[in-house]
Amino acid sequence: xxxxxxxxxxxxxxxxxxxxxxxxxxxxxxxxxxxxxxxxxxxxxxxxxxxxxxxxxxxxxxxxxxxxxxxxxxxxxxxxxxxxxxxxxxxxxxxxxxxxxxxxxxxxxxxxxxxxxxxxxxxxxxxxxxxxxxxxxxxxxxxxxxxxxxxxxxxxxxxxxxxxxxxxxxxxxxxxxxxxxxxxxxxxxxxxxxxxxxxxxxxxxxxxxxxxxxxxxxxxxxxxxxxxxxxxxxxxxxxxxxxxxxxxxxxxxxxxxxx
Length: 259
Prior knowledge:
Blueprint: E1 2-3, E2 9-12, E3 42-44, E4 59-68, E5 73-75, E6 81-86, E7 89-99, E8 108-125, E9 130-150, E10 154-174, E11 180-204, E12 207-218, E13 221-225, E14 241-243, E15 246-258
Antiparallel strand pairs: 1-2, 2-3, 4-7, 4-15, 5-14, 6-8, 7-8, 8-9, 9-10, 10-11, 11-12, 11-13, 12-15, 13-14
């Protein structure tokens, strides 16, 4: 704090204040960049309406499309599997975040992630029958992000979240003679992930273009059926669909609104 030309209280931003130590540290960093600096760094109150202060309440909302590697699942069928076809997963992520109060540099955000993704699996058996699997995951949980690099037009953001995930699967058995049976399996789990996003800021007013990648730590999950199977081809002793543990990668593209 200092005084204005009129003798009223005024302030100087900390980044323009240079501490004079009056010792050998003065030799490593000059006290002033110019012999004569014409700039008046004092800010008088009230500040101009267009002065670029950091907003206390800043929010982001993102809509992201996802493409990822598949999840490995298994069911103990009595028949021999001779063909497997695992498709990539597709989904949607929704993010809502708010800048934390103590962040003066607009880098640190905390919020919520809601996501859905699905991938299909086709299995062929030696007997000529087939099973189609539709594996879906619904998730929600806290999301945290930090801009590790930023310019006026771009940002590189690291993020992490941990979600409560509802796993659901539909298994459709296609037997001989047009025999058909569908069963539903489900379970709950915890899914952590980490990743990074590159943002092109203000591609249109208040809207960013986002491109990202992340790694998901898939936990082992045993999904149980909602009803018992009718056909004899189901395994009554091990009637569970197992989602194996492992790492999955996901790529995202979408838009992010700032307000």
